Amino acid sequence: MRRTSVFVTIAFLAGLGIGFFARSAMGTLQRKDTHAADLAAIEKLHQKDIEVTLSQDPKGLMDIWTEDAVRLGPGGVKDFGKQAIQARNEKVHAQYPGFKVLSYAPEYKNIQIGDGSACEWGEYEAKVKMSPEGPPVSVRDKALRVLRRQSDGSWKFAFGGPE
């Protein structure tokens, strides 16, 4: 009887150890899977950003931002909220009806993801024409962005602007 209880105790403790190890390993694998999925979804947002910036699609330019987003622009311009961002986009297009983005190439150097938010910084180069007859203008700048995971697993920009 005594050997049986020692054996049961050892088996129980071994089971706890194996269970703890397995649970820890599964948690690590799940975190890696989640991180990989987040990186893929963020890359999809980056591609969408390039696509809508080049096309200047008004709806697409809004779809990449959260409702409460903040966008900082050149010269200290600040847009608070998606409606303000849309109004600024419309104002620029009204002021420069022939505005065209010829190229846009962002390169993000550091993406930190944590608990539904991400932060990234990088550089971008763009070439734009303010009017059909105007010369192309080259732009090179640095940017800092904060992203937020949406309930469907996609990501949107919550903050963006020059460093």
Describe the structure in your own words.
With 163 residues, this protein is α+β, with helices and mostly antiparallel strands. The protein has a single domain, classed as Roll (Nuclear Transport Factor 2, Chain: A), CATH 3.10.450.50. It has three helices and six strands. It has helices at 2-55, 58-63, 82-95, and strands at 65-72, 78-80, 100-114, 117-129, 137-149, 155-162. The chain has a six-stranded mixed β-sheet with strand order 2-1-6-5-4-3. A hairpin with a 5-residue loop joins strand 1 and strand 2 (78-80). The relative contact order is 0.14.
Summarize the structure.
With 163 residues, the chain is α+β, with helices and mostly antiparallel strands. The chain has helices at residues 2-55, 58-63, 82-95, and strands spanning 65-72, 78-80, 100-114, 117-129, 137-149, 155-162.
CATH architecture: Roll
What is the CA-based Rg, rounded?
Answer: 24 Å
Q: What is the H/E order?
A: HHEEHEEEE
Low-confidence stretches: none
Q: For the report, how would you describe the main beta sheet? A: 6 strands, mixed
- Distance N to C terminus: 73 Å
Proportion in helices: 40-55%
Number of helices: 3
Shape: globular
Structural class: alpha+beta
What is the CATH topology classification name? Nuclear Transport Factor 2, Chain: A
CATH top level class name: Alpha Beta
Secondary structure tally: strands: 6
Average pLDDT, rounded to a whole number, is 85
- Share of β-strand residues: 35-45%
The strand line-up of the biggest sheet is 2-1-6-5-4-3
Number of domains: 1
